[in-house]
Amino acid sequence: MSPPDPGASPPVLKGYAHVYSGKVRELYAPIDASSGQPGQDSLLLVATDRISAYDFILDSEIPDKGKVLTQLSLWWFDQLTDIIGNHVISAAAPEVPEAVAGRAVLVRRLDMVPVECIGRAYLTGSGLAEYRQRSSVCGVRLPAGLKDGSLLPSPIFTPTTKAPIGAHDQPMTYAEVGATVGLPLAARVRDLTIAILVRGNEIAAGRGILLADTKVEFGLDAARPDAEGNPAVVLADEVLTPDSSRFWPAATWAPGRAQDSYDKQFVRDWLTSPASGWDRSSGRVPPALPDDIVEATRSKYIEAFECLTGRTFG
Ligand code: PZK
Ligand 1: does its nearest atom lie under 6 Å from the Cβ of 304? Predict the structure, then answer.
């Protein structure tokens, strides 16, 4: 993945200090009114309209993508509250400033669990590559004969390390997660990751969308001890969005080939078509997208939101 353009500076948000730029999101800390210093208790997560494809952040933005994904993530948090609490404090004014309304969330600052928690319901991507080499993924043995896009016998937990931007996350075994965070917490995040993916697919099923896999992040909230006095495990980051999960159109799912992407298929097809003049293996940055590809892609994000939530976007 190409790192964010170091020349591009994040927008200034009055009353917030910028703390981190992700590939397609920005992180800010609210400045405490009395001390004039960034606070330690909360963070503002801002989703941008940036989009990535083939490990590049594209020059073209997708209008409303940040809002659609933020609203979808908030809706999923609500669908999951019986499974796990989340880090959301507020998604509205005055906690969220006008400049980023609809695409930002003020969240509790947590001690993040230093593992990328990935659940897979279908086999593809790096999971498929690992399976072809060793018949297992992250130490989970799988049956012979699985193909690209196969439904797994049951969802599996395939955690990775959290690599810095530009580097690639490395697969971890469950035992390695246990050695990193302790076995009780490893078991908890494994079970939660699977439960979130299963619930997501139960809801998406019949709405035309398959959730092939998902990446979730958990944090510990010391301010909210559980019954045993341990800090509560809380769902953080975004959840079950097209940026954190592979969304596949159910209608065209067919194991044995690369699946269509629900959201990015127009982008991929155009970038790899002669029309773009771009060669994926050239190492050169992809060209800007034509307006009709931008508009078609925007429509897919909105379609996914409306189809899953039953709400009208905007
Ligand atoms: C946290 N990220 C990733 C998200 C970015 C980067 N509740 C939390 N407490 C402490 N840290 C984080 C969170 C959350 N969520 C999340 N990095 C740290 C990230 C959004 C934008 F630039």
Answer: no
